[in-house]
């Protein structure tokens, strides 16, 4: 009957309090995520906080504070793998970073409650909620602010449409004209389009351009007989 020997009523009550706190704090964080219809919502954040609390509490009861600290480090790395599962890359855009960071914070909340630091867990929960709610309008305002191409780190692409037969020569001309304008090309991609045409996309190495200079290069390229159109755009790196 190892259960009878190992059972300690006071420690059991302490574990109940830790798990309950982790459940409540994780539910508070998850409810906000669920309301915004994010990938990791109410149940996921609760389970992450509860699981972290369980592992840390178990290690502390079996081997003491030193072993609990070691388990916390494993929890951090484990949540990193879980967070990677909610991050999705769509073209140049990356989604799910905030959700992954929230899961990381939920695990930290669980670790706090697992070590009986309930006040610290509650404080961290408040900060997470503030970060995901009150900072949301500020982030939206910054996103809508006009992008200054000279100061912002961005990826610039020059796109050109030509015929499939003229692809090799036009691609070489595109690279030569851009490099002559002091805008070296980092990568060139081609995509087949309808009507036996090909779109060439040249990604510039520079993270800052002069719009007038790129416009001049585009206008020069459009004079070539086999070039159907030329355009360029920019997108942020992060």
Automatic annotation (TrEMBL):
Gene3D superfamilies: 3.30.70.260. Its main location: membrane. Residues 157-232 form the MgtC-like C-terminal domain. It is found in: Cell inner membrane; Cell membrane. It holds the Pfam family MgtC. Keywords: Cell inner membrane, Cell membrane, Membrane, Transmembrane, Transmembrane helix. It comes from the Bacteria. InterPro entries: MgtC-like_C, MgtC/SapB/SrpB/YhiD_fam, MgtC_SapB_SrpB_YhiD_N. The chain crosses the membrane at residues 12-30, 71-88. The keyword Transmembrane helix applies. Residues 20-139 form the MgtC/SapB/SrpB/YhiD N-terminal domain. It is a multi-pass membrane protein. Virulence factor required for growth in low Mg(2+) medium and for intramacrophage survival. May be involved in regulating membrane potential by activating Na(+)/K(+)-ATPase. Belongs to the MgtC/SapB family. PANTHER family: PROTEIN MGTC. This is Protein MgtC. It comes from Kaistia dalseonensis.
């Amino acid at each position: 009957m190892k259960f009878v020997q190992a059972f300690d009523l006071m420690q059991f009550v302490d574990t109940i309090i830790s798990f309950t706190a982790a459940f409540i704090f994780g539910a508070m964080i998850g409810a906000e995520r669920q309301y915004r219809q994010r990938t990791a919502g109410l149940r996921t954040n609760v389970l992450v906080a509860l699981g972290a609390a369980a592992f840390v509490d178990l290690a502390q009861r079996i081997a003491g504070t030193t072993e609990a600290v070691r388990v916390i480090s494993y929890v951090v790395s484990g949540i990193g793998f879980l967070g990677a599962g909610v991050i999705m890359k769509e073209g140049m855009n990356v989604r799910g970073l905030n959700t992954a960071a929230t899961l990381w914070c939920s695990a930290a909340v669980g670790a706090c409650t697992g070590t009986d630091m309930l006040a610290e867990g509650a404080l961290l929960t408040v900060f997470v909620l503030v970060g995901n709610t009150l900072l949301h309008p500020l982030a939206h305002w910054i996103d809508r602010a006009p992008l200054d191409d000279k100061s912002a780190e961005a990826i610039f692409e020059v796109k050109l449409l030509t015929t499939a037969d003229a692809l090799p020569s036009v691609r070489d001309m595109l690279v030569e004209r851009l490099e002559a304008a002091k805008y070296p090309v980092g990568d060139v991609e081609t995509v087949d389009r309808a009507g036996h045409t090909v779109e060439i996309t040249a990604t510039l190495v520079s993270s800052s351009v002069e719009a007038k200079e790129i416009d001049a290069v585009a206008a020069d390229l459009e004079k070539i007989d086999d070039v159907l159109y030329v355009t360029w755009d920019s997108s942020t790196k992060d």
